[in-house]
Specification:
The protein is an alpha/beta fold and 296 residues long. It folds into 3 domains: 100 residues, D-Maltodextrin-Binding Protein, domain 2, CATH 3.40.190; 75 residues, Periplasmic binding protein-like II (D-Maltodextrin-Binding Protein, domain 2, 3-Layer(aba) Sandwich), CATH 3.40.190; 78 residues, Alpha-Beta Plaits (2-Layer Sandwich), CATH 3.30.70. Strand 3 and strand 4 form a beta hairpin. Helix 2 packs parallel to helix 3 and helix 7 packs antiparallel against helix 8. The C terminus is likely disordered. Bound molecules: 3-phenylpyruvic acid.
């Protein structure tokens, strides 16, 4: 079967790089071929899988500097038929790409909001009066750079090579350990090859709304997890968008949903929640799984 993997485009995005990493691992370890399909936004990427235009999607879910990618969480909550199959954590090293003679000639900088946010201290220091323009992805503005010698974009080294554009400044992210977690998402019940690394922790991501804003609404589900000795690796709240002050909770557990004590925990939690969604149980694909480095 030839799989299609949806991701944020145009080609050269960090998300495409993560998708390519998975594709190469898949082909090397199982012989299954796959093709990459770029979409204009992460929400459209996920909808492509929900509508069966693509079998898989790779989406960014969390950055070590900027926190959760809220559009990904919100869209996963809205789309019922999707399942997280795998996580990938990729280092992100931003470059400033431009055809300008020097930094002094730059008037505008384009990037995905995450790219602009992850380099804000650098931008304030080296390009304090430059206009920052958010784009749908780090690669969306790259085709304009050859025409506009006063424009720059924050993107990856790989993108600079793909579009044959010069890098005018390197390592411009504010924190050197910058990395992003991506999720590989499929339709429910699609069996997907997962790395079989025995010592690797399994995660389960869940999301729930609570029936009312009352004392203990969040504490009760958390107490269940504590009592059953299930460790949390992340908790995030998002507005329900129904009324101000009402929240959904996204929680990552260090356990597999098929384990009996996790099944009991989830059954008990469902009695305290309004809607409970099990987003998936998955491994993290180690970035050395291919034996070759992938860097921004
Ligand atoms: O725009 C991209 O290249 C993306 O894939 C989104 C993104 C942006 C910045 C860091 C990580 C992911």
């Amino acid at each position: 079967m030839n799989l299609s993997i949806a991701h944020l485009g145009p080609p050269g995005t960090y998300t495409e790089q993560a998708a390519l990493f998975y594709l190469n691992w898949l082909t090397k370890s199982t012989g299954v071929e796959a093709m990459l399909c770029p979409y204009p936004s992460n929400a459209q990427t996920l909808r492509a899988v929900a509508q069966k235009e693509a079998q898989l999607a790779v989406v960014p879910v969390e950055n070590s500097i900027e926190g959760s990618v809220t559009m990904t969480l919100d869209t996963l909550w809205q789309l019922d038929s999707l399942q997280v199959q795998l996580a990938l954590v990729m280092p992100i090293s931003h470059k400033l790409i431009s055809c300008a003679q020097s930094l002094e000639n730059i008037k505008t900088v384009y990037s995905h909001p995450q790219g602009l946010a992850q380099c804000q201290v650098w931008l304030e220091k080296f390009l304090p009066s430059v206009e920052r323009i958010p784009t749908n992805s780090t690669t969306e503005a790259l085709l304009q750079l050859k025409q506009d010698l006063t424009a720059a974009a924050i993107s990856s080294q790989r993108a600079a090579q793909l579009y044959n554009l010069p890098i005018i400044a390197s390592e411009i992210n504010d924190y050197p350990g910058n990395c992003t977690r991506f999720w590989l998402v499929s339709q429910n019940h699609l069996p997907i090859s997962q790395p079989t690394v025995s010592e690797c922790t399994r995660y389960t991501s869940i999301a729930f709304s609570v029936p009312a804003n009352i004392p203990g609404a969040l504490a009760k589900p958390l107490q269940v997890l504590a009592r059953l000795n299930i460790n949390l690796s992340k908790i995030e709240s998002r507005p329900t968008k129904r009324s101000l002050g009402e929240y959904l909770f996204f929680i990552d557990l260090e356990a597999d949903a098929s384990q009996p004590h996790v099944q009991s925990a989830l059954a008990e939690i469902s009695s305290y929640t309004e809607i409970l969604k099990i987003l998936g149980s998955y491994n993290v694909l180690p970035m050395n799984a291919l034996g070759e480095a992938v860097s921004g």
